[in-house]
Design a protein that fits this description.
By secondary structure, the chain is an alpha/beta fold. It is built from 13 helices and 11 strands. The strands form 2 sheets. Strands 3-2-1-4-5-6-11-9-10 form a 9-stranded mixed sheet, sandwiched between helices. A two-stranded antiparallel ribbon has the order 7-8. Helix 1 packs parallel to helix 2. Bound molecules: beta-D-ribofuranose and calcium ion.
Length: about 350
């Protein structure tokens, strides 16, 4: 099994990442921590509680974390993820509330309880993890492995020309985390899933239809660019219905931005890597974050050739097989929805 803590800013693709984790038999979900990013942290918490309850995992601790980045003001992106962060989906209100513990405390307590065992996954800004490593500097050594969705290396940004969203929201925290993890042994370097590879994880309506079929949901709808934006799913299966309503918004967003009627599944890919790093080909590099550039603040810079004379602190994903990722997603999330 893979004991895991996930820190998320749910988020449409974070939602599918959560479903993937819940659907994976090898995942031992210890806690979900919430950070501000796509939407405010309190909304993230509601979304996480709601997805967990919908999928029969209401026993997993959900902890609220930082409501603002460590230094700069919060920016959110409802235009990308919908007014509540879950696209057009309207999930049933959760029946429970968040944990009394702060997200950073949860990370610290859990890694102290199970040193060297836990995989950490972060699919939002790195604020909570930065707070946690400031409170417990041993945290990088106590984690088994950290997997991050964030950054853009030899690739255009999606937030500014040089920055990826999760890093751009809180660059100071990102730098704290990359610096803090420079102490871990080479076989435990953080795995970084950046836009260079996550924009190759393109979900199309056909994938969603296959997933619905795998879940035995009727009717199986084939969403299309010709649909009236905001059309709601009539699928009988609640997980499939809500997921379709969420992902439709993401299709519409990407379509509006001339990327086609598809969606980049950044965070679910990172979740799949956290459970099985062998699906990713990585290359070691020293990563730092630009904090002072007037045009480039938040840019992730990779030193691939050791020019800085500093040890590598990241394994950057440089290749994967997107079809294998979708095969796993359809099989796993399909059976979760069927259950
Ligand atoms: C990242 O930004 C967010 O909007 C997504 O959830 C993903 O984590 C991609 O840049
Ligand atoms: Ca995210």
């Amino acid at each position: 099994t893979v004991p895991l803590i996930a820190d998320v800013d749910t988020g449409i693709d974070d939602s599918l990442a959560l479903l993937y984790l819940m659907a994976s038999p090898e995942a031992e979900l210890l806690a979900i921590t919430c950070t501000a990013g796509n939407v405010p942290a309190r909304q993230v918490a509601i979304n996480n509680l709601a997805w967990l309850e919908l999928c029969g995992h209401a026993d997993v601790e959900v902890a609220l974390g930082a409501e603002v980045p460590i230094i700069q003001p919060l920016m959110t992106t409802e235009e990308t993820h919908g007014p509540q962060g879950i696209g057009h989906a309207v999930l049933p209100a959760p029946s429970r509330s968040v944990s009394p513990r702060h997200a950073a405390e949860v990370w610290i307590d859990l890694v102290r309880e199970r040193p060297g065992e836990i995989t950490g996954l972060v699919t939002g800004p790195l604020t909570n993890l930065a707070l946690a490593v400031k409170l417990e500097p041993e945290l990088p050594k106590l984690l088994k492995r950290l997997v991050i969705m964030g950054g853009a290396f030899n690739y255009a940004g999606n937030t500014t020309p040089t920055t990826e969203w999760n890093i751009a929201v809180d660059p100071d925290s990102a730098k704290i985390v990359f610096d803090a993890f420079s102490v871990v042994p080479t076989d435990r370097r953080p795995i970084v899933c950046a836009l260079d590879v996550t924009e190759r994880i393109e979900m199309f309506p056909a994938h969603l239809a296959e997933l619905a079929r795998a879940a035995g949901s009727e009717p199986v709808e084939q969403l299309s660019a010709d649909d009236v934006p905001g059309t709601r799913s009539t699928a009988s299966n609640p997980v499939i219905r809500h997921l379709s309503d969420a992902v439709r918004f993401y299709f519409e967003f990407h379509n509006t931005h001339d990327q086609g009627y598809l969606a980049h599944m950044h965070d679910p890919f990172a979740a799949a890597v956290a459970l099985d790093p062998t699906i990713a080909t990585t290359r070691a590099a020293t990563v730092d974050v630009e904090l002072a550039g007037t045009l480039t603040r938040g840019q992730t810079v990779a030193d691939w050739r050791g020019m800085w004379g500093r040890a590598a602190n990241a394994d950057i994903v440089v290749d994967t097989d997107p079809a294998e990722f979708f095969r796993r997603t359809i099989e796993r999330v399909g059976s979760l929805a069927r259950a």
